[in-house]
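Here's what a typical entry looks like (Transferrin receptor protein 1):
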Amino acid sequence: MDQARSTISKIFNGEPHSYTRFNLTQNMEGDNSQVEMKLSSDMDEEVGGNGVGDHLNHNSNRKPYVAQKLGRTPKNLCFMAAATLLIFIIGYLIGFLVHRKKEVAPTCATSVSAFQEPPVHETGAAPLMDWDDVKKLFADKISPSKFESVLSEFTSADHRAGSPGDKALANKVITKFKTYGMDTWNDEHFVKVQDPPASGYNKFVFKGTEQRPTGFLSYSATGKVNGTVLYAYYGQESDFILLRDKNINLTGRVLLVRAGKISFAEKVANAAKMNAAAVLIYPEPTDYPIGDTTELFGHVHMGSGDPYTPGFPSLNHTQFPPVKSSGLPKILAQTITAAMGTSILRQLGGQNVPQTWGGINRLGDESDLITLEVNNVLVEKEIHNVFGVIKGFVDADRYVVIGAQRDAWGPGFASSTVGTSVLVELARSISDMVKNDGFKPRRSIVFASWSAGEYGSVGATEWLEGYLTSLNMKAFSYINLDGVVGGRNGFKVAASPLMHSLIEGALKKVSTLNKAVSLFTQFGRNSRESNVYEDLKMDNAAYPFLAFSGIPSVSFRFTSGSSEYPFFGTMLDTPDRLKSLTSGDVTRLAEIASQFAGHIALRLVHNHLLGMNLTRYNDMIRTHVYWINKRLKDVRRMQPQLLPKDLTMQWFFSASGAYDRAAHQLAEDVMNSNLDDIEMCRIINDRIMAVERNFLSPYVSPRESPFRHILLGSGPHTLKALSSHLDALKAGNPGADADLFRNQFALATWTVQSCANSLAGDIWSLALMET
């Protein structure tokens, strides 16, 4: 009321203003709307001889008409009274609203004072919780004691993909997610997989003795072959080169190879390149102390996902034409036991094995006849991936995906149960932080439980294929939890180079079994590159995320030191064996694995900017440039007729330099960015997310070469393949094609240049960089 009286007094005292303003702030919406009210009379007035005071008029010599009328008639007096009452009511309303909103009092336009700022609204641009508080809060949520019950709940003797046991586990996972208050959904696919014959068996006959192994390799060619046995060590390319140097003909041979070093699929693919007829794979006892009669299970698809729907999802309602993945083998493949393999090896004749292979075995000769019969059957299975999401508070449509395989050939305790338990515990812990402790992640976290992982990451790949265009724009990282505990004496990480800084930060902050020692100190202090980092292999579930979808990915695991966990892919992967191998520390190791994965995930969703190391790929590109240039010079010197003189490294050098400059410029933009500018942070994050995606070659078919990443993928389009192609040209290999090399070289060069262009940002930024 006092404010209203003051306003009316000023009006009657003749202060020369025509407007007063008051602020109506809509607190909920966060935007300000200003309402203006005109308080001037219809015409200029002057109060002269009546003693009220002089009005400073625009024309002081003109006699006011209103003053004449007001002093002469009762009618005018009534009008004046009504006007006064109206002004009083308006002033009262102003005062009421101002008092109610607790805003500043109306002021005259000529005596302007700054408006009071509206209340500060949380935008999410500034951290809602200090990072140290986030780390401590998360660490308090995870404990070994909580893993006891979770591991027990998800332990299952039979949960092969598509089985009732697999579906029961899926229901348990999604029920947990719902209990934590997460939004959940289910992703259904109908996939084709190969299983052992329901009636009948696979078999081989050697030296008159028939054997019927119960293990099998899914996606093998089927049928019957006769041939002679040839021992080929681990079936790596280097092993076949040694055999070729001994002038041994591999065409039509049945190769006996050890398990390990590379995947089953790679062994069979290498054998097929040498025109072999079939492959037998056994666990050498010195590598796999699993007993003489333990069967092996796996797959030989040189790819991931359903090989009968390459590049697109396996959905029940689609009508895709029949097509097969180029990664399906055309030769037979079968696993056999250690006893079967060593028995064959002891009976082989022929040359001695190369000294580098060790032992006193022989390679085999034309008298070592064998017959192999594979009768696997192709079946369609309904599988379910299940998901839960914790939504971000700023960029909810940007997310990190954390996933774990749920199925297994047998008990699968280390291969799937531990990873699924870590997934569920991460979901519980972070959900509780959001619900009860005030943690507000900027970006979202998607938790995924995959099915059909044992057949080659089928569930995960089908999801990627189904949502590829959305995922490679919005998913900025994948964290794989498969097989995270396979020992206690070693720690290995395979990841995109973009994630190395995040990984090293987690290594330094997460403790080992000895709480006083970090993972970095124990495993990576002397040589992080050799002791901790390893290549991301094709049989890792993170591989299709990185090489097929262009999503920066990481996979990690505790190991038994130099050896692998021997019970993967067997029926012996049980809780008791893993506990024995880890000295009873499974729950503590699962806790550490959760801390490591959680540290990376929380860092990615908490910080304003994605903590990717943008310059790590520079060294990798420069290394490839060096070796391609060296080999190109060798070919020119030794086979000058194969390559035209106008083929130079100039454009490749230019593309490499452009990427280096663009990566450093983006790193500088990150350093100079305004973290309070939400839109600018989002733009920079999108540029960071595009780095991995732009290394996918746009010039190859997902059917022929699904892993399109030119640095970490697989196929003739990769920079590694270019070096190998030059080696073949230098050696005069009849299969080497100079024109094919020129084409692949040009496409790879432009892929690197396109990645640099994308890194530069807007097209005008690119133009300025080039000048």
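Residues 1-75, 98-126 have pLDDT under 50 and may be disordered.

More examples are in the samples folder.
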